Amino acid sequence: MSSLKTDLWVGVDVGSTTVKIAVVDPATGKLLHYSYQRHNAMQSQKVLELLQEAHGLYPGKTFGVAFCGSGGQPFAEATRAFFVQEVVANALAVRAMHPETRVAIELGGQDAKVIFFEKDRTTG
Fold first, then answer.
1. Chain-wide mean pLDDT for the chain?
2. 119 pLDDT tier (thresholds 50, 70, 90)
């Protein structure tokens, strides 16, 4: 996210068929809000709609926004927000929240990804 102080972290996944948004309290890591909606080939409109909805739920709060997904990079560039490749985002989240995981599979609207996690043999 940004180096500026933000009240809430917002992740937006712009996929080939859907847009997902998650609002997280950075102090607690608690998920405060999420939405998963089809964009019907109108990505920009749906991204704007979901960001406006989140802002309406938390008026006066500053958002640190990051985009991912196959359609996320243009939004990140246009808004000067952070962009992370979705496989990297998923791998980091799975590793942080479920470190015992050995394999993660993501099925998207246009492709599928498999991430293999291997235990570090040098640390036991």
1. 92
2. confident
End-to-end CA distance of the chain: 33
81, 66 contact by CB (below 8 A): yes
Residue 1 covered by a domain: no
Q: 25 with 8: CB under 8 angstroms? A: yes
Predicted local distance difference test score (pLDDT) of residue 4: 65
| Tally of domains in the chain | 1
Q: Which residue has the tokens 């050995």?
A: 102
Token pair of 1, please? 């996210």
Instruction: State the residue for tokens 């309290």.
Output: 25
Q: Write the CB contacts of 70 (distance below 8 Å, at least 6 apart in sequence).
A: 14, 15, 16, 86, 108, 110
pLDDT in tens, 51-97: 999 999 999 999 999 999 999 999 999 999 999 999 999 999 999 99
How far apart (Å, rounded) are the C-alpha atoms in residues 24 and 30?
Answer: 6
C-alpha 1/C-alpha 109 separation (Å) is 26
24 CB neighbour count, 10 Å cutoff: 17
Residue 73, domain extent: 8-116
